[in-house]
Each structure stands twice: as structure tokens, then as C-alpha cells.
Amino acid sequence: MTEEANKPAAQEEQGPQFSLQRIYVRDLSFEAPKSPEIFREEWRPSVELDINTRQRTLEGDFHEVVLKLSVTVKNGEQTAFIAEVQQAGIFMVKGLDANGMGHTLGAFCPNILFPYAREALDNLVTRGSFPALMLAPVNFDALYNQELERMKSANEMPA
């Protein structure tokens, strides 16, 4: 009986918990609208990268985080290719306050997903017969803080 009485106190002392349950590709697409003509032109690419994240609570302490990377590469004025990946993960997160949960789901989890998304994009691009696309690391903490500041100045409440 004393063991049962001590269990809640032991669980409280355990503190926050985090674990990665699964990483998977939610959506993947590649389009090269000017192929094969684009391969005969001098290669002077310009790269546009769009990064978005979203999260949703699944059940209990489980959350899905989706990192979406969209890349549009133009050669001069022509679109050489458009590649997009939605890399997702299921994470168990508990014992955090609202700020800690927001940071974990909005910055920490996308940081875990980014290398997988970057590799998937690079693989798509090389399969399309274009030069490898090596995306630079992304500072998700800075992006998360910028979004908080934007929301604060717009008087929006964080989700």
C-alpha cells in the first residue's frame, strides 16, 4: 500500500517526457515541366525554398508534426522543377507547460524531421536528372521565435 501511495510522487519527479514514435513521408511530389528541353540549356539556377510546419494532437500525449519543404528551381525565367516533401513524425510529449510544448512542437520536432526531408528532396531532384540539391541547415528556433513575435505584434494568440 505504501508503494502505491509513493507512485504519484515518483511520477511527478520524473519530469517532462519526450520520445519519437515514428518518422514517415506524408506526401512527396516532383514536377519538371520543361523537360527534356531544360537539359540542353546552360544551367544558371535560382532556388526558392518555402518551409512550413503544422502539428496536431492525435490522442493523449501523442502529436503529429509535419514539416513541409517546397522548392522551386528556375533556370533563367523557366521553371526547371518543383519538388515538395511533407515529412512527418509522431512524438510523445508530456509534462511540459504551454510554452515548452509550443517550442517542442514548433522548433524541436521540425529540427529532427529536417534531415529526413532534405534527403528526400535531394533524392527526388537527382532522380529527375538535375544536380543535387543540398539545402543548408535551418535554425528552427529562430523561425519559431520570429513567428511568436509576428503573432504578438498582430495580437494573435499562439495555437
UniProtKB/TrEMBL annotation:
<keyword id="KW-0813">Transport</keyword>
<dbReference type="GO" id="GO:0006457">
    <property type="term" value="P:protein folding"/>
</dbReference>
<comment type="subunit">
    <text>Homotetramer, a dimer of dimers. One homotetramer interacts with 1 SecA dimer.</text>
</comment>
<dbReference type="InterPro" id="IPR035958">
    <property type="entry name" value="SecB-like_sf"/>
</dbReference>
<keyword id="KW-0653">Protein transport</keyword>
<comment type="similarity">
    <text>Belongs to the SecB family.</text>
</comment>
<protein>
    <recommendedName>
        <fullName>Protein-export protein SecB</fullName>
    </recommendedName>
</protein>
<dbReference type="GO" id="GO:0005737">
    <property type="term" value="C:cytoplasm"/>
</dbReference>
<keyword id="KW-0963">Cytoplasm</keyword>
<dbReference type="GO" id="GO:0051082">
    <property type="term" value="F:unfolded protein binding"/>
</dbReference>
<dbReference type="InterPro" id="IPR003708">
    <property type="entry name" value="SecB"/>
</dbReference>
<comment type="function">
    <text>One of the proteins required for the normal export of preproteins out of the cell cytoplasm. It is a molecular chaperone that binds to a subset of precursor proteins, maintaining them in a translocation-competent state. It also specifically binds to its receptor SecA.</text>
</comment>
<keyword id="KW-0811">Translocation</keyword>
<keyword id="KW-0143">Chaperone</keyword>
<dbReference type="Pfam" id="PF02556">
    <property type="entry name" value="SecB"/>
</dbReference>
<dbReference type="GO" id="GO:0015031">
    <property type="term" value="P:protein transport"/>
</dbReference>
<dbReference type="GO" id="GO:0051262">
    <property type="term" value="P:protein tetramerization"/>
</dbReference>
